[in-house]
Amino acid sequence: MAGSEADLLALLRELDDPQWLEWPRNYDRSQIGVRFGDLVSRLDDGFAAHCTAHQDTQDSSEYGRVVVPGDATACGTRIVVCVSKFGSLALVCADNPGAFLGTEEAQTEGELDGADLTRVNRALVDLGYVVLSEELLESDYIGPSRLPSHVQRPTWWARFFGLF
User: Which neighbouring-strand residues pair with 92?
Assistant: First the structure.
């Protein structure tokens, strides 16, 4: 599912419930785990490589991450997919979150191949994830939830992928 930045911001606001910071009200850990496993399998097959996965992150609104190894990508840079516990939100980055100002910059710098990015995005969309840009997630958080005191600059990333 893709949408305009305004639509995606509206979705983030809709998912933002101050009573449920770490996971949403109707959180189904096993269902998210199954979908996450399907994502890992799709990426393993799509890149003909073993993708490492870290899941069920404690004290975080991020469920887990899948890492496509650099030697399986066209540019030699690993691809990291972060999955939130909220609304099947996902983020795709080259190397690591924050390594680039987003996938566009990574492509411009020759660190992320467009076909590789399309392959990852297709797997996410086919499995029902909503792919968010790093630029959107790094924008200032303006919402009703009170983020933990250790969050120095509240962003949508801190709200839906951060540590609690």
Answer: 81
The first and second tokens of residue 96, run together, are 């690591």
Predicted TM-score of the model (pTM): 0.94
Give helix 114-126 / helix 29-47 axis angle, nearest 10°: 150
* pLDDT at 157 (0 to 100): 96
Exposure class string for 29-68: b at 16+ Cβ within 10 A, else e: eeebeebbeebbebbbebbeeebebebebeebbbbbbbbb
CA angle 29, 157, 138 (to 5 degrees): 160
45 to 33, 41, 120, 144: CA distances (angstroms): 18, 6, 11, 41
- As a whole number of Å, the end-to-end CA separation of the chain is 28
pLDDT recorded at residue 2: 56
Please list the rounded mean pLDDT of every run of 10 residues in the chain (164 residues).
83 95 93 96 98 92 97 98 95 96 96 98 98 96 92 94 90
Which helix (H) or strand (E) is 5 found in, with range?
helix 5-15
